[in-house]
Every structure is written in C-alpha cells, then in structure tokens.
Design a protein that fits this description.
Layout: E1 3-9, H1 16-24, E2 32-38, H2 44-54, E3 58-63, H3 73-84, E4 92-96, E5 100-101, H4 106-116, E6 120-130, E7 136-138, E8 151-155, H5 156-161, H6 171-181, E9 185-196, H7 211-218, H8 223-237, H9 240-255, H10 264-283
Parallel strand pairs: 1-2, 1-4, 2-3, 6-9
Antiparallel strand pairs: 4-8, 5-9, 6-7, 6-8
Amino acid sequence: MDYYIVIPIHNEEAFLKSTLDSILQQTLVPKKVILVNDNSTDGTENIIDHYCTVNSLFQKLNTTSSTQHMPGSKVINAFNKGLEVLDDHYDVIVKLDADVILPSNYFKVICSHYKQNKTLGICGGFIYEQNNAGEWILNHPMDNDHVRGAIKAYSKACFKAIGGLKNAMGWDTVDELLARFNNFTIQTDATLKVKHLRPTGKAYNAKAKRLQGKAMYTMRYGFVITSIASMKMAIKNKSVKSFWNNMSGYIQAARNNTSYLVTAEEGKFIKNLRWTNIKRKIKA
C-alpha cells in the first residue's frame, strides 16, 4: 500500500531529527513525506533542508499558518497546506507530529490492518511519554479505541468522506465521530508503542485552556454530555480547574452562537453515540 505523510512543524529543533530518522528506518517506507515548516524561528529549517538534500523522500514547504501556537487551528492549517502539494495517488494519508519516535514496523503493521479490514477508516498505535524517572509510560485516553492526534492514519475513502480535518480544537475527536457516522471503523494497536518526546500541550498558548469546552459545543455534545465529559477529564487530570475551564469554554461558545463543526444530523448521531458509550461504561 502507498501512504503519504504530512508533518506540521513549528520550532521542533530538539526533536525533529529523531522523528525523521524513525521514518527512514520503517520497514515499509512512505511514498512521500511533506515537511511543513510553519514559521519556525529556531534551527528547524536547517534540519529539514538537510533531510531533503540527502533523501528525495522528503519535500519542504515553508508557510505561516499563525503566529500563536494554539491547539487545532495552527497545526491543521499547516497540515492542509502540506496536503495541497500532494496528489491523490495514495491509499493512506498520515498526519504525524514532529516530536515522535515510531517503531520500525509501525507503518507496515498499520497498512496490514487496512488490507485486512476494508471498512477501517482511522488507525494508529499508542503514545508513551517519559516520566521524571526516565521511564516510558503509557499516556492514553480512557477510550482505548481513540487514535491520538500525533499519529493519525486515514484511509483515503474515510479521509474524503469526513471532508478532511477540521480547522479547530477537537479535530482529532470529530474526525473519529464523523468516520463512524460514515460507517468506517477505528482501530488501535497496542503493540505499536510510539515515543512522544514532548508531553501533549506543553507548547500551547495559555489562551487554549477553554478551547476543549468550546470544541464540545461545536460538536453538538449538549450541556449534559459536556458536563460528564469534563468531569471525567478533570478526574483523569486530577484538576478541578480543568472542569471549570471546559464548562466556561462551552458556555462562552453558546453565548457567542459559535458555528458548529458538524451538521444537525451528524450532531444527533454523535450525541446518541456518546450516550450509548456512557451507558455501556456504567453497566460495565
């Protein structure tokens, strides 16, 4: 199977080399890798230039999507710029972060899953992050069938059906909800252990703290489901403040009549799916 990778990159001088080396070491190499240098001000572009010189697999694209490092909008703007330079001759499209180390068999296994399951829409491994003791610890959401945004791989059919990636916070949740709406399945593979070199959110702008609640509003969760999801998140993060930040973000979005990311029909499906999962977990 042929797969393309697009990597949005902003000031990743410390990590980028490790990511690109892990791509070169894949047992099934990609057909193309677009390195989107998004307004980096460190030595990132020098690293990109070196890899583009030594291997024709890599292609550089310079762009400025935003000067603020906000979750969702900046990274997806950069991803979409990279997507524009690609053709349609692929089976799988990958959105990859510039601060991960992939196991050498990563994409061979991912593509094997796509070959075996024709309804598979989104696939990925599991993220591990280093603790203070230097140990690599699993850092995954409570839903084990969720593929983290750092390592998203989409079948072409699924990617087209969901209309690509949404330019907003919550893009890596709404993509899976819309995949299911369009009758695609999601699969994670726990044997694929990906090292995430910088913990999620460490580089984000301080204004981002209420965007999760706003995302829940734009995905038409409704107040009750948003409250439940925010409470779960607060318990997981051991932070009461995160609950209030989420709810404040939701309420502010409602007051501002913020545009939805999904249609009313898609929203109804999403809400029913969320309630089904909540009831299933309560029974378990």
